[in-house]
Amino acid sequence: MEETTHSGEPLYLKVARLIEAQIQAGGLRVGDRIPSIRSFSRQQKVSVSTTLQAYFWLENRGYVEARNKSGFYVRVPLEDLAPEPKFRTADSGPAEVGVGDVLMKVMRAVAEPGMVPLGAACPAPALQPYHKLNRITRSIAHSDPFHSSYYQFPPGSELLRRQIARRSLEFGCSFSAADILITCGAMEALNLCLRAVAGPGDVIAIESPTYFGVLLAIEALGMKALEIPTHPRTGLNLDALESSIKKHRVKACIAMTNCQNPLGYIMGDEKKKALVDLLARRQIPLIEDDLSGDLAFDLERPKVAKAFDRNGMVLLCSSFSKVLAPGFRVGWVEAGRYRKEVERLKFLTTIATPSLPQLVVANFLESGGYDRHLRSLRLALNDQIQAMSKAIAKYFPSGTRLTRPAGGYLLWVELPKSVNALKLFRQAIAEKITIIPGGLFSASGHYQSHIRISCGYPWSDQIDRALVTLGKLCEEFAR
Amino acid sequence: MEETTHSGEPLYLKVARLIEAQIQAGGLRVGDRIPSIRSFSRQQKVSVSTTLQAYFWLENRGYVEARNKSGFYVRVPLEDLAPEPKFRTADSGPAEVGVGDVLMKVMRAVAEPGMVPLGAACPAPALQPYHKLNRITRSIAHSDPFHSSYYQFPPGSELLRRQIARRSLEFGCSFSAADILITCGAMEALNLCLRAVAGPGDVIAIESPTYFGVLLAIEALGMKALEIPTHPRTGLNLDALESSIKKHRVKACIAMTNCQNPLGYIMGDEKKKALVDLLARRQIPLIEDDLSGDLAFDLERPKVAKAFDRNGMVLLCSSFSKVLAPGFRVGWVEAGRYRKEVERLKFLTTIATPSLPQLVVANFLESGGYDRHLRSLRLALNDQIQAMSKAIAKYFPSGTRLTRPAGGYLLWVELPKSVNALKLFRQAIAEKITIIPGGLFSASGHYQSHIRISCGYPWSDQIDRALVTLGKLCEEFAR
User: Fold this and answer.
1) A299-323 in b/e burial notation, b at 16+ Cβ within 10 A?
2) What is the pTM of this model?
């Protein structure tokens, strides 16, 4: 059990904030060594493991860095190198989406071999537990020869649904296997949910910026996207959401509450609850995309908004694509009061989810290696984000702004106004570098000088050179 | 090379028709032994293999039966036991579909363990090449450890697309790998095609009866189904289709031209061409579902309507579900001039098709075992259809009518008017027997006394007893 304070806050957080305050007040300066774990534990009368948690928290937030065997030191704050992106409050009305054509070009480029992979949003193959997944695959092909001889009709493999239900405690829910529907990735789940709660012409409130797949799905279903200003650290602006709801007939809201794509923020619990309550009061369903919630850098797995749902109005979508293997396409949805309708739609769009990937994931979860894998994956991704952030701050023109992701592997980069991100994308392709231009993340033409950079791959000379090249390309726009 | 006559007709067919004519004229009667293969070859001056092909054709059509080691005998024609279903010509207008609720109940029953499997449309596990598929699966998991570490972005695995393109010659096409898009089964392909060519409110012309998945997809997309009278042996009535097109603004047509579900007919080449031309003249795209074309009982693989497409107006959908492994969910589509739009829709609904099943199927096709597997599967399914047909003719009340499928594993049974198929379905479930009630195959309330029976499983005492039970249940309706 984790130590907590009277207020229910984890003790390590209270301890970490002591040091955070000292750094912010200037009592500890860049290059200072902070107390050793042992001496700090003694001094604060907390356990060594609590101090360790606190120091990791400080490290994850970029306050301190561990130097080999000599302890933790206060580091140059990233803020001094590159500030965070600006928060856009300007309001836009419901818009028809038109990002499809650009997107297909981007995707074709991303899939080409030999590119520096700063485009596609997934962890490097080497960070995936492919070895164990292959072992399980071989074992199932041997011991269960008829695994694919039947359709796994909706809701899908019971073994897998039981494992997901078991894990749901981690993010504040207590699902039973019967609540879960297995899908071909979170994208299918999201489409099914959209179709279950809204129809052509309906207005869907979304984060701005948001994952382009959401925009494409809304467009293809003949719905309209209503962009809600979204803060790069705290997420959806609830005041803006509320006033938008008053102005427009919003039929549903889509939000990625944890490790948002592209901003990387995690919405606080209070805010998640407020979001759920705000929408429930107006009978507006919330489609929550928790695709990367398991990749939060905090030691504690963040809750989902669904945890605060009392009316079955939240449809929670997720997937194992970003954590285990993108090519498995195993996702799931807990659709609350829309469960039956979503299940029906699943049947009539793909009949069933492929059996073997479901069974492999179920066995992986059952075998207990999931949490161990998550721990090392999160550490690696955090390292990669830190390394890429520093390099971007160093190589990109002044005026560049950078997010501080709380999890995942994505950086959202606001470039100087002179940079045309779509042109930059084309120039980068010519240099064999893939990035995603910011315009794809808006239905209303925003983010023309933004790019999304994936930090899914371990730091390397190749990536270093690619960022130098990108920086130079950006500089040229200013001339 | 197959021997052909001057008219281009296969020689075996000409030879077979000689005997067919004799049987029909009464020159050969029930129980008569037809000439031995050797003597008939000599007499007609054709090769032994041509005679063998002719005799198989006669056997497949129920004219003769092979008796162990003693040759071929004229058998009791099925016509005398149970006539074919009536051809309904009555016209119905465009209708909103409403079969969803019943369907989900049916599917849940079909998926329950311990049921006699006359419901779900797939071949028995024992008839699938699971052993070889598992061997390939293990081998890929070993030799290509990163098989699922990436997304197989649309259009999907090139290896698999090349294999499908290679096979396309068999059904009268000459696709290149670039023409093909891999999907999560034919059902996803069908949905993508529908969304590419039509929108909410549009009228889609369909066969009547037709596969309920088609009806559900049309319903869920807010489109309307226009049922076209369909003959149990020859398929869509083109005159009826033409006059319907004149009356209603038909936006697209869906047809299963080979081994139709549920009727089992194969449309002739002439008619396929006429269908394509009729629709092309009016710029109406044809979505062709060739899911079971490989299961035609004829020695020659029937062509697809797509083979006669000169304008890219035919979108051909297919899958390996019914031939290799339903749980793999590997389908594909050649979408003609709609290729780009269908590819875009694929991306935004499921991002990618799972990698491993694609690779396993590709390797299976490459290894060359596909045709051998098809031959034995088709023989088995034909046997099963014959056995089930005889049993139904024997056990079911007089007035029962039965299709004569030209391929696949489905029987469409027209029961006496007194039978309510939905009630029969419920009673059958209570007896642990699954069937599909006919109402599911219509958007306009037809086929209330019809059922679809799957002959995917080898004949057994259990199936025999199930058919006796079903026959008795039918009798009770007449009282």
Assistant:
1) bebbbbbbbbbeebbbbbbbbbbbb
2) 0.88
Tokens of A319: 């997937």
Check whether residue B210 and residue B268 sit in a common domain.
Answer: yes
Q: Which of A60, A76, A92 is the last residue of a domain?
A: A76
- Looking at the complex, report in whole angstroms how far the Cα of residue B98 sits from the nearest Cα belonging to chain A: 12
Closest chain B C-alpha to A385 CA, distance in angstroms: 20
Using the beta-carbon criterion (under 8 Å), do A146 and B130 form an inter-chain contact?
A: yes
My answer on whether B110 and B63 are in the same domain is no
Contact A161, A363 (CB under 8 A): no
Inside any domain, residue B155: yes
Closest CA of chain A from B280, distance in Å: 26
Same domain, B43 and B20: yes
* B220, B204 contact by CB (below 8 A): no
CATH of the domain at B465: 3.90.1150.10
For residue A66, what is the domain's CATH number?
Answer: 1.10.10.10
Question: How many other CB atoms are found less than 10 A from the CB of residue B113?
Answer: 4
Residue B1 has pLDDT above 70, yes or no: no
The total of other beta-carbon atoms located within 10 Å of residue B29's CB is 9
Chain B environment of A344 (Cβ under 8 Å): 100, 103-104, 216, 220
Mean pLDDT, chain B, rounded, equals 92
Taking the alpha carbons at both ends of chain B, their separation in whole angstroms is 58
Please tell me whether residues A84 and A188 are part of one structural domain. Answer: no
- A184 in Cβ contact with A353 (< 8 Å): yes
CA distance B97 to B84: 27
Q: Does B5 reside within a domain?
A: no
- Interface list for B 217-246 with A (CB within 8 A): 217, 220, 222
Residue B6 lies in a domain: no
Interface test with B, best of A112, A140, A149 (most B CBs within 10 A): A149
- For B6, residues 6+ apart whose C-beta sits below 8 A from its C-beta are none
Q: Are A357 and B125 an interchain contact pair (Cβ–Cβ within 8 Å)?
A: no
- Which CATH number goes with the domain that contains A246? 3.40.640.10
| DSSP code for A74 | E
Number of domains in chain B: 3
How many alpha carbons lie under 13 Å from residue A217 in its C-beta half-sphere?
24
Are A191 and A308 in the same domain? Answer: yes
Cβ of residue A147 closer than 8 Å to a chain B Cβ = yes
Cα(B391)–Cα(A19) distance, integer angstroms:
83
Amino acid B76: pLDDT: 75
Distance between CA A317 and CA A183 in Å, rounded? 9
| Cβ separation A149–B107 shorter than 8 A | no
**Residue A355 touches chain B, beta carbons under 8 Å:** yes
Q: Which of B189, B329, B328, B350 is nearest to A329 (CA)?
A: B350
Residue-wise pLDDT tens digits, A378-420: 999 999 999 999 999 989 998 999 999 999 999 999 999 999 9
ipTM at complex level: 0.87
The parent domain of residue A52 ranges over 11-76
- What is the 3 state secondary structure string of A334-350? ECHHHHHHHHHHHHHHH
A162 and A215 fall within a common domain = yes
Residues A104 and A146 in one domain: no
- Beta bridge partners of residue A145, listed in sequence order: none
pLDDT reading at A60 higher than 80:
no
Is residue A4 a part of any domain in this protein?
Answer: no
Largest Cα–Cα distance in chain A? 67
Q: What are phi and psi of B433, to 5 degrees?
A: -120, 130
Beta strand A116-117 pairing with A433-434: parallel
Are residues A363 and A434 located together in one domain of the fold?
A: no
Q: What is the pLDDT of residues A319-368, one digit of tens each?
A: 999 999 999 999 999 999 999 999 999 999 999 999 999 999 999 999 98
* Pairing verdict, β B180-184 and B330-334: antiparallel
Alpha-carbon gap, residue B147 to B169, rounded angstroms: 29
Phi-psi label, residue A54: left if phi above 0, alpha if psi -120 to 50, beta otherwise: alpha
